[in-house]
Amino acid sequence: MNRSSALFLAFVFLNGCQMMAPGSPDAKKPVAETTPAPAAKPQVYSSFTPDTVVSLLTAELAGQRNRFDVALDNYVTQAIKTQDPGVSERAYRIAEYLGADQAALDTSLIWSKNDPANPDSQRAAAIQLARAGRYDESMVYMEKVLQGQGDTHFDFLALSAAETDADTRNGLLKSFDNLLVKYPKNGQLIFGKALLLQQNGNTDVALKLLEDNPPSDGEIAPILLHARILQGMNRGKEAMPLLEKSIKKYPDDKRLRLTYARMLVEQNRMEDAKVQFSSLVQQFPDDDELRYSLALVCLENKAWDEASGYLEDLISRDSHVDSAHLNLGRVAEERNDPQKALTEYAQVGPGSDYLPAQLRQADILMSHGRTADASKLLASARDAQPDYAIQLYLVEAETMENNKQNDQAWTVLGKALKQYPDDLNLLYTRAMLAEKRDDLSQMEIDLRAILKREPNNAMALNALGYTLSDRTTRYAEAKDLIEKAHSLNPEDPAVLDSLGWVNYRLGNLDEAERLLRQALERFPDHEVAAHLGEVLWAKGNQREARKVWGKALEQQPDSPILRSTLRRLTGSETL
To answer: What span, in angstroms and rounded, lies between the C-alpha atoms of 95 and 211?
Structure first.
């Protein structure tokens, strides 16, 4: 091939991951708790025939146009034809990205055969063979990874395998057990097996394996996994001494201290978490993820000055800018400075923080009697960001409803549905508002329209069933709707509450009590508590009913359903 073609093709390959969506599967795995992989070495490619060059260029162009089927076919063909490590690796990456199992297996074997010194190629072959159920062959490649690894590649093998299907994990567990017979004290194998066990839900076995095999010096991943398993078993307090001891031993390890700090947050030890995140920011001053986490912990601690300082630092560093402005708006609201809050929220651009910022602006304006200004703001936002138009209509209606402007919210939803008549979120929102307006006919029309298009929409089934059981005497029809929602979402506490309530209406008090207890255990909500208390009252268990209501009132003393239930059954709104 001529030199210009070679140079152009090299450029295509070296930039391929930017040109096409498929990348290394490791990039999609949670590898934060392992040592980072070494930087990839520049790939050296063979000289290709003109036909091969054209085929590979066609593949890259196809990838740019999202025709990954063409790209995969060309790359697999050329991997087989050329046996080139770079081509086969690229073919493998595309195949794995697309979930083309057979192509991924074939190309991983070509890659591993022609690049035997590369642990990534051996790892890819091991995983693909295990996925195909060829466990004995997989073990051969796993052993090559084990023998040729530095400190990280077997960690990556385990992490990659852990995120696959259960059959692959079970197959790899067999291979790990066989390898452990030959290498019984190998820390990487022990970690890999424990990780696979944990991913399979065998947490007790995984925990015992880690406890029976303390990690060698410098092995951090098993410590983190040990702590994570304890946390997942609701034994987070037991993980803390393990992490504290490890931090003393490895004071500069970022992963240990970060895991410890996050567990402190999960245990609501915010002041201690703030100390840890502060230490992390001092150790790693260029890590803005840590700085943002510290800002959030300060917010939870109501340390407004500190939080503002870190958030302003992030803005000056051009990092997490929208989130920083959103949270600075929150600080301003806490300090009763609505104008400052509006200024901060207005600087939030499109993205995940955009709608919350619009909602807060609208709420501030409406709560200060400036409903027209709020509507004007949201109308301008819809013009500027048409992709958010439906959500912004929902924000406007929700904010009006929250500020007791139901008629205005009804008008907004009507306008939105004229523009977007098929949007199910708008229909559902109008149905819920119709119920509050005692317009049960419109509520049913809207929910039936949703169910006509989505017969298995559990939320609509439950909403209609509950309203029919609560506001009408159509109990049998309501029960059918709710039972269908329950078959779709059997653990949903809202559905359990509805099913308990319709059984109460039908006189099935024992079944109603059973279901409502389940609902309250999963979601200690004031409405569920009102329902359970009423069933207990009807069964003559008035003492427990008062106890259930009293506990709920402690959490939500202004609950209208609790107050109305008490008034109706006891003659007083207080216990």
So the answer is: 39
